[in-house]
Amino acid sequence: MSILENNINAVFDHNLKEQLKKVNQTYQIVQGDDNLDINIIDGGGEGHRLYDKPLEELNKTLNLYNDKYLLYPILFFYGFGNGILYKALLQNPNHKVILVFEPDVNIIYTMFKAIDFSKELKENRLLLLDPNNENINDLKNLFLSNLIFKFLRTYFLEIHCDYYDGKYQEEILKLNSLIQDAIKENIISIGDDPLDALRGIKHFTQNIPKMIANPSYKELLNKRKNLSDTAIIVSTGPSLTKQLPLLKQYQNKASIFCADSAYPILAKANIKPDYVFSLERTDFTSEFFNNDFGEFDKDILFVIKSVTHPNTIKYLEKNKRKYMIVSTPEYFFKYCSLNDFGYFNMGWSVAHMACYLSVHLKHSNIIFIGQDLAYGESKVSHAIGHIYGEHDLDDEGLYKENLKTEAYGGGKYIESSSIWIFFKKVLENDILTFNKMNMKIYNCTEGGARINGTIEKPFKHICEKLLKKDLNKPFTKLENLNLNKQNELLLKAYFKIIKNIKQYENLKKELCERNISINKNLLHIDNLDIQDSIHMFELILKQIDELKTSIYRCGLLNGPLIRQFELNLARIYVLNPKTQEDSYNKSMLWIKEHLDWIKLIIAHIDSQKEVLQRSIVTTKDELIEKGFLNLVEKIEQRALKNVNF
């Protein structure tokens, strides 16, 4: 094959690869006396040159990167140019991946005919990307690569040369904003609060007996897929109030998925949802169920995330409501092997959770109402009848933020908040995926923020178009697992958690011993000469690497505790020391960062162990009540000896 064919076939970005296959003309290459002195004259009317002095600009950039950015594993550039810069930078083994966004496919095509980049492209060290692709999901998925993710906090976008800065300034700013959004969403997705993750584990463990004693997610999918073409997702934005009469009229012609906060409002309007969702870890949202609607609740299924506050379960049982508890595919939940009760992504809000489940139940049309994600008139934040009121105020009675986003229908802007804008972006990213699945997503809120990717239509119009026939409601009844299976899962979960507590004890013991050893070695550093201090640093760094290997291998720590640490550590990793003093300071900074992290882990282990010991009591009591005291004692003995159950 030709150089061109080799290069095109090696391109990572599928869309860009297809564009390159359709190009049939090149720009003019201007070759100087030196082999690296290559300029390009673009195909515009005035025929602009990409560089004033190609060789001089190349050397200037290389000098900068060999000095300031020598140790950066991941680099981002806007503009491919003649590509020689990237060939040269990738000679440095520290640069693992270079991502290059090139808006003009003809520039790439021109250089692909002249220079062989196939090796760098095939190894995925050089990633050429189309900056005109506005699908943030593509960037998010790319950034989830472990190597790229670790260094997201060292991100900056370098402009290849003045040509791109002058011609694409607006596009560069837009791309930079898109990348920063993708980075922010990826980092948020792994969590930034270990204590919040711990609270989730606490609630999950407390809820295990209730989860097992109710219908499973697997049962739901088996019995209720394809029962309805259309799902209406009801949220509690200010616009919901005006949609209630129409929703009541059509309630038997679509599946109704309802946010927990909307449930009391629908009950008051005598509109029966098929599903009500709740996912928050605080008792704040449990109060949406602290009521008694009597016969109205019959045939409603309450779908509860397994980390939800136990008060939610208490209120549901108090009024004999039918519910199920489901889990996301997070490590600890999967570790407990309650696979029938998971796993699916539930997003960040009940609207996300409802949307994902409606997709899994094979609805081909999804209609949003009340999904304002913005303030209404008089800064109203919620529909009339919301139990916490219609205004989202802080402790001093003031509105929390003053942010704006594009309004429903376009052409103007509306006040919103950072959390609503975040929810909106997550929803928009998911809708791009759903659209590729030939699903129709309608925003019939008729107010609030514009949700890109949805079809904006009046609720009445869509109801008349899609909702012709009554559904066979109530939907198929769901059954619990048989008692033998329930008991088996309860015993296994109990064993797993008791064993997990023992593993935490072992890990803490190892961490404390290694921590003492590292600190002893560190005390001697200041009294050593330069050469000996270098050897001591090497010894300590080796001890730290061994310790990290043990921590990562055991898989016991929650995501935020590890991933946030790695993100912060990357900023130290890329520092390029110029002197012995710089090297000393960097090594000390690296070691102290790890020692602080180890202290944090030890404290976290104590907290997690205490949480599990307290939370598992509900499962233990349940097992004893079922007559399994002897088995409970055997499980505890085996777990302490690390014997499999």
Task: Outline the structure in words.
This protein has 645 residues and is α/β, with parallel strands linked by helices. The chain folds into three domains: 3-189, no CATH class; 197-374, no CATH class; 483-640, no CATH class. Helix content is 50%, strand content 11%. The chain is built from 25 helices and 16 strands. The strands form four sheets. It has an eight-stranded parallel sheet, with helices on both faces. Strands 5-4-3-6 form a four-stranded parallel sheet. Helix 20 runs antiparallel to helix 23 (580-615). The radius of gyration is 29 Å and the shape is globular. The chain starts with a helix and ends in a 5-residue tail after the last helix. The model is unreliable at 393-399 (pLDDT under 50).
Ordered list of secondary-structure elements with their pairings:
Layout lengths: L2 H7 L4 H9 L5 E4 L6 E4 L12 H14 L6 E5 L5 H6 L7 E5 L3 H10 L3 H5 L3 E4 L6 H8 L2 H5 L6 E3 L2 H6 L1 H21 L4 H19 L4 H8 L5 E5 L5 H10 L5 E5 L3 H6 L6 E4 L22 E5 L4 H9 L3 E5 L4 H5 L14 H11 L4 E5 L33 E4 L6 E4 L1 H19 L3 E4 L11 E2 L2 H8 L16 H41 L6 H25 L4 H15 L6 H36 L1 H9 L3 H12 L5
Parallel strand pairs: 3-4, 3-6, 4-5, 7-8, 7-12, 8-9, 9-10, 10-11, 12-15, 15-16
Antiparallel strand pairs: 1-2, 13-14
